[in-house]
Amino acid sequence: xxxxxxxxxxxxxxxxxxxxxxxxxxxxxxxxxxxxxxxxxxxxxxxxxxxxxxxxxxxxxxxxxxxxxxxxxxxxxxxxxxxxxxxxxxxxxxxxxxxxxxxxxxxxxxxxxxxxxxxxxxxxxxxxxxxxxxxxxxxxxxxxxxxxxxxxxxxxxxxxxxxxxxxxxxxxxxxxxxxxxxxxxxxxxxxxxxxxxxxxxxxxxxxxxxxxxxxxxxxxxxxxxxxxxxxxxxxxxxxxxxxxxxxxxxxxxxxxxxxxxxxxxxxxxxxxxxxxxxxxxxxxxxxxxxxxxxxxxxxxxxxxxxxxxxxxxxxxxxxxxxxxxxxxxxxxxxxxxxxxxxxxxxxxxxxxxxxxxxxxxxxxxxxxxxxxxxxxxxxxxxxxxxxxx
Length: 389
Prior knowledge:
The protein is built from five helices and 22 strands.
């Protein structure tokens, strides 16, 4: 073997040995790094989160809007006769019933007219009685009384009979005027601010009211809905009057529950909305005429929907997602699609299945694969949120 070949073999063997040496050191370094990472992962504390189950439930679909409370009836109480107010029987803001006395007006002139009409009737009744006696006498006289005398007396009796009928009408009219002196409530409702005082002269010809009364049991709410929702609303109304909920303007506090009564007969072309009217019993007077409210109209119910708490739904650059927790207590990111959301609940169409557990609080510390420790979220969402440290 030549010297040059021997040197080549030596260099080759040295190169192979050096490569093996460096490869072994790199392998050992990677192994040590992996073991260190595993040790760090093993020593890393689990992230505390709160979870809630993915449920299968019937989900009500509400159409939300804004509306105004409207009294069923509003009456401006006015006098129907002229006179001086002698007594006021109501207090401002009082609830009155139909037939309750509100105001007394001096009835003495009208009572005098009634007494006069009654006296006139008594006088005419006496004249009629006398005329009847004369007619009976003429009739018994037979041929000794002329036909003309008998016919004239019969006419007198008829005239006096008609006069008594006129007296009855006059008495009725005078009695009506006396009754008008006592002003009564025409409806059940709440009395407003008093516009007259004792001693004031009221006149039937003037337009000034004594007081206003608004009926609030039941009461109505007028609200609007987009015209493209009209088919769903009509379908719901065709089955049964759909439930309507009136809430405070911020939509957080329910005030009363009623039913949809009617859909207006035309769409407002300028706004593309349709006016709706809902009726509420309002026994607790939670709704007040002129009050602004938020409304929820139940248009349908989704049967067996996949429902999660709103707090589980997160917003990312690629859309909505949620973290579920697997059997190893590790977080898994799941992309989801949500179709409905109300009252802290959302309907998930894709991405989750009933029975899974989703994280509803503490997501800011979680990434896919993170080990978590779980606690069941309270029904009170405010209590179920994990406070930021």
